[in-house]
Amino acid sequence: MKLTGSHEKILAQMRQIALKHPEKIRIVETNVDAEVQLEFYSMMQDVDKSYHDTDLPEIFGQLSDCDDMQHRKKLLVAIASTGEIEAYRFLEKYLETCDDDIKKWALLACQQCQMFLESSLLDESKIYVASGLGGKDHRLRYIFVLAGKKKEPFSDFEKKVMENEVKYYLEKSDSVSENIQYDGKYAICTALVPLHEDIVELVQSIIDEVNQYGGFIMQSIFITNEKLVSREALDKMFDSDENS
Q1: Bridge partners of 26?
Q2: pLDDT digits (tens, 9 = 90+) for 154-210
Q3: Same structural domain for residues 80 and 156?
Q4: Containing domain of residue 147, as a range?
Q5: pTM score, whole prediction
Q6: Do residues 84 and 156 share a domain?
Q7: Are 226 and 7 in contact (CB under 8 A)?
Q8: What's the per-residue H, E or C state across 82-123?
Q9: pLDDT tens per residue across span 125-148
Q10: Same structural domain for residues 116 and 182?
Q11: Which of 129, 150, 165 is at the close of a domain?
């Protein structure tokens, strides 16, 4: 898991806020690709302010009659940015009937409108945290991989050791284990981890403890909260580390 210096600083700040003021943090549960989210929030910064002077029913009508994908995206962002109850109700219904090619965008618009609406009604500011894999409550969803040093699949003993240690360390950190899948020499773990937890240190602790029982796991760490990872991508990453 590689972060730039600025991203590390922002993440550290969010962890401190989550630790001291967890009520100010809200995890967005949507599991939408990071690229789509970046495009959405980028467009939200540039949304045409003239839409704010247009009656909502008129914008709703424009969206229903529009075939141009880019214009539909702009209209959805414009609707979401109003933070009005009427807009939120419309987006809820639109999400049920819209085409698949715009569904992720509509989902982000619906959730963004809900955030604006909640902030307005509660008269307090919150920090909303989104990731490609989503999350739940105060936890972000991560995928982390334990890679075996050998080429062959893990033995039953090795699987048992990993499952026990993953469960122990996740429960110890108020995290939730959702799934462990085996694919060749990889144990692919999906877990919900509190925002204030250092996920790198957590996974390193699991690897160190597992290796007390035969040292069969590589020290290299792979963690993502953006998207599912393929076997081919894992081979490329871990084989590169092994040969470096």
Answers
A1: 128
A2: 999 999 999 999 999 999 999 999 999 999 999 999 999 988 888 889 999 999 999
A3: no
A4: 139-243
A5: 0.64
A6: no
A7: no
A8: HCCHHHHHHHHHHHHHCCHHHHHHHHHHHHHHHHHHHHHHHC
A9: 555 666 778 788 788 889 999 999
A10: no
A11: 129
